[in-house]
Queue: 2 jobs
Job 1
Amino acid sequence: MNALAGVGVSPGVGFGPGYVLSREVPVPDPEARHGGDAEAERDRAARALERVAADLEERGVRAGGQAQEILRAQALMARDPGLAVGVAGLIDAGASAARAVYEGFGGYREMIVGAGGYLGERAADLDDVRDRVVALLEGLPAPGLPDAGARPYVLLARDLAPADTAALSREVVAAFVTEQGGPTSHTAILARAMGVPAVVACPGAASVVAGTEVLVDGFSGLVRLDPSQEEVETVTRAAAARQAVLAAATGPGATSDGHAVPLLANVGGPRDVEGALRGGAEGVGLYRTEFLFLDRTVPPTEEEQVAAYLGVLDAFPGRRVVVRTLDAGADKPLAFLPPPGREPNPALGQRGLRLFQRHPEIMETQLRALARAGLQSSAKLQVMAPMVATRQEAAWYVAACKEAGLTSAGVMIEIPSAALRAGDLAAEVDFFSIGTNDLAQYTLAADREVGGLGALHDPWQPALLDLVLAAVNGAAERGRPCGVCGEAAGDPALACVLVGMGVTSLSMAPTALPAVRAALSLHSQEQCVLAAQAALAASCPPDARAAARAHLPELAGLAL
Amino acid sequence: MAQRQITVESEVGLHARPAATFVQTAAKASLDVTVAKQGGQPVNAKSILAVLALDVRQGDTVVIEAEGEGADELLDALALIASAP
């Protein structure tokens, strides 16, 4: 298939000729000599160094911010007096200007690389300056960008540096595609600021043949090579429609006929709050507190915990914030709380609430810190326990929460036994939150840490959908709310199915919020119920998907 | 010969922004100025490459030296940059 797939980090569709950014400037021949006029050659080298310095400085001024800092330091490298002396000496000994520049930088490069760490990274800055000067002296195109063409181009690269992108604008670039990087990489941030579509973590991007026509969907992360005219039109039209709908779908989550479904964010600490607010989260449905406990030899103090909880609570005054108490063990071992013995299968071992039962002092401190934070904030604080298997465990946890002064305590439904006996558990707790990722792992007996079992973790697996329904019904018998906070909640089609089953709130990665909000707003509660019935009647994930989508007609038009 | 001994307080040491500012300030002066790690070989303080290669980290002590008219003022300015947190 003539397509690549990555992670969409800046929405929109870009189409244009592909240009692969190369930093490769050939090493000047060690034997390269100048014609004999050393003075003229020294002059040529000096002018090339100064021209590159001035160019870097100018790019910096245009870029501003952090990029300007880096570019300013690079300009200083090109103007370095020690380097100039070294280069002149090499030319006097007969070397060509290009070779002299290459060798002149080489000595410093070795020392800088030898230092390692942060300084080692600066070697890339030095190489960039050196290559620019060498290219200029050899009459080669500068490493980096082509001049603006008749049409904006799609820039493909292994990764992009501030110097590469500082001078770009959306008149020049149709889209970015990089092999490396993530949602917070330099490329992603820059692309969003420029309003240019971007896909990162896209293997093969830097191997695209220059001049190939490239179609980039910065939402889905799909990159098509040499697409047909029809494909371009379809994708562009769908993206435009999707953008219009996503932009129009604001406010609290609800179906088209007004059935409210709060849309909440999954966060891993105060640093995720900004993204949650940007996505329009109505609160937090899953605050993972592990970041406070991992990678340390002693548990965090109560004060430290209060500050971390307030960092999220204060961002959502008057709104719901559901904090999951420590979920350690399995793939997240704690240095200060090792398991009592070797665990051949840690996913089935001492983790989650089971760890609290062995170390109640850790739980008491966390619950006390949460209660204090709750009192200091106007957010509606709720707490929940991970890895609850039985009614007795739920009762024990809720009692500890109430004793600490917490008013709302619930449990996660992620073990099949808890889903099957949901009615019993509901009698003990204030709410449920279904963790579909672990529930899939335990229902299908497929370790999440083992590669090659992905198909068994498909959230459309019929047995998983059955257990979700059991949990929702168990909660409903007792009049308890039941949310979903796994990956499933962020899938627009499955989100509609979950609402059709009776799920009362959906919590997801903040970037998934706009699409789910739009999908819900385009379908009625009745359509969601029909989609849920159709999905539950199917006997395999592809059939369940297709059957549900038949009742959710607006999704296709949005390419969701 | 005027001289200052400074403990570098910046988290990034004498790299990144502090290094660039330090070198730019030194380069503006007409007199020669050197910087060395305590006990090490002095290098030209106007050379960003030499200063980076010194690999001065937070908590290291550096010695800066200059001679001539305005040496004290220049060293005071450089000491301020190098010791800034």
Job 2
Amino acid sequence: MELNINGIQHHVDVEPDTPLLWALRDDLAMTGTKYGCGLAQCGACTVLVDGQAVRSCVTPVEKVAGASITTIEAIEQDDLGKRVVAAWVKHQVPQCGYCQSGQVMAATSLLRQVPHPTDADIDAAMVNLCRCGTYNAIRAAIHDLASGSTDGGA
Amino acid sequence: MVNGLFDDASLMQQGPVNLSRRRFMLTSAGAFVLGFGLPARQARAQAAQGPKYRGTQVPAFLEIRPDNTVRLQSPFIEGGQGTFTAMAQIVGEELDADPSTFLVENAPAGDEYAVMDSGMRITGGSMSVRNGYPAMRRLGALGREMLLQAGAQHLGVPVSELTTQPGQVVHVASGRTVKYGELAHVAMDLPVPDPASVKLRDPSQFRWIGKSVKRLDIYEKSTGKVDYAIDVRVDGMLHAAVQHAPRLGMTVGSIRNEEQVRQMKGVHSVHRLPGAVAVVAERWWHARRGVEALLVNWVEAEPGVASDIRVMPADFSTEEFRKHLATVSGKEENAETKGDVTRGLKNAHTVVEATYFSQYVNHGQLEPPSALARYNPDGTLDVWLPNQAPDMFRADMARRTGMDAEKITIHSPLLGGFFGRHFLYDHGSPYPQAIALAKATGRPIKLIWTREEEFLRDALRPMAAVRFRAGLDTTGCPVALDVVSATEGATEGLGTKRGKDLDPTALEGLTNKAYDIPDRRIAQLFVRNPATLGYWRSVGNSMNDFLYETFLDELADKGRQDPYELRLHLLRDNRRLTTLLKAVADLSGGWKRGPFTAADGSRRARGIGMASPFGSEAAAIAEVSLENGRVRVHEVWEAIDPGKVVNPAIVEAQVNGAIALGLSQVLLEETVYENGMPRARNYDGYPILALNQMPRVHVKIVESGEKMGGVGEPPLPAIPPAVVNAVSTLTGRRIRSMPLSRHDFAS
């Protein structure tokens, strides 16, 4: 199976129905993308597929062969992703950090589609779970990025 | 991966002391890392000299690198609460080194890191900063003293002529400076000065303590660069997944399709474990698929045989257990008495009786439990796992394996959330299974529990049914209070035997309330739980302050009192709490109970909750409305008084987090058992708070200057009662249980 991940072509020797998450983690040693629930409930495994936020724990690799996959490892190679990370740092968003790879990917996807999201847009898009309760910091960081008043800080 | 020098303490014991310090070791990964510290036995001997000064073995804690970065071995684990940053602030303040130059790691197991007053080492109970504060300040000051002495040698001047600036020793007279990084190799071989001799910095001169210093781990956590236990890999490693018996106590009978599963792609081997089966594979996905395909005939536990296990009965249901708790009679053991409650109730003008309930809840930390175990050719064992107490876990591994504890190295990566999850729970962690599988296969094993297995074996926050009886005087003020909680505490719920004394975690939050009610009794009616119990953020307070504070509002209503004014009255002689309660009311723009119509046209009301958990004080106000029969929380104002504060920004983040978890509990969470099994095995059946349910949060930190209290847990317990009291005001209905999703407000 050929996968285009972060602009690099990778060959992975897995069955076509293997979830992308486990190809990333176990075959490619890219562990920045996290396993949380395996049911697309929590969003810790979020990656971008052709710019869209996708739950990699329920996405078979055969579905994304030929697509352009972006993981947290390459998020700063993307201008918008780099700004999102900078805003995360400025707003000191993470606590334990385990869900934050997914949150950063989800926020990048949202801002790509809706550069100036309302609270309702954020509510609808940012459905990833955070047990530490960093939600208000996430919302503030996204508004900050959307306002254009800052480059995300840092 | 990192091998600590403690692996071979006996070897080091034979060498001169200065050879045992700060030596670079080549790791299997090919990178240079440092081994730390004094040989374990030597440190133990020193620790045994007396408890007056803990954590004084400076070279065990500190390494200052040639580039002037400071590597600190923290006695407390980072799991999101910001303790690594706080430790850098505290040590840096006295060492005279900017916290931003610190690299903080979780220290290995070892007595020298037992800096808590208790002589133990646990990250929990909101203890880290308040309990580590004196020792870590002293540690920094001792380190600075050693650097000054090394500076005197280096510059050839008396130490009395030297001072420091951040990261360097300064000879003011000549204007010469020398960086810590250049002195460290000499300084750390000097004898540690007498801990009693060091002078600590005057708090008025603090540069970092008390300031909102940026966290040290934010960039890495924002870019997926942190390795949690689940991310660790070692050469030659195999992956494992398990399927547990549906009920604790059951054992593996036969496996109906073992040979078929063994033939599945990628499967290495199939294993029988106590109360579980496992599949080992080259990839975890194969292990998971294999283990979920196994068809196991589970055998019921033989009554009385497994005395060390809480055998889960086949008919256990939380709904039935709740009824049992509400009606059971038995010995009532008094935890707190004042005055004469019998007389107080008899003389009361009105007596109010009600039973309130708390529910089981899961930890739900986002990182599923995992453990990586590797036996080394020299007979030693390395284990990587999320944990809140390395020494306790190592001792448990020694007990299970029969190995000498010093041959076991515990690695404690950052925690992907814990909330009490990573304490030592029998049958609640994968490491015994990972160790057994590593032994059986002769290969390093990384075992990850699926979310479903986690929900099956998580240790639960206890349930309680609390029977309140209160007496009101003619003015409607409570004058007598009798409280009997049918429950089992988290601590006594860890084992299978009850302690001699009452478990304080069972009743905390019913006990130690500051309200002036002259005649009162708080008692426990012990009821053994079939489920395994554990610590959940703010422990007993997580439910007991809800139970107490909502009943207090019920009393206020019965006595026709305003709940805010009643609390002020009952706290009239307590300046600290009066100040705090007024602070939260001011923060909310003045106490306004409602119901009232908000700007958006919705009907809203506000409620209050207070709590005195973990050495701190908290007061909260919540504003709620109903949307389609569901409770919506719009605003939460919370004032917290932890006495003194090390990092206000981290405190505010912790308050936000505790509010989120408190709301999640009161709005949504309930672990339901039917037929001896949890109904929910993933977040789809056990919803937790999401971003669109998070209210605006307003935090006021009140520094009373009282003894430093905890921060991670104390903001939680006031939240559920604040919300429920608001909902009762809004709906006119008394609500006596959580979660609110159990109640239908549409009608």
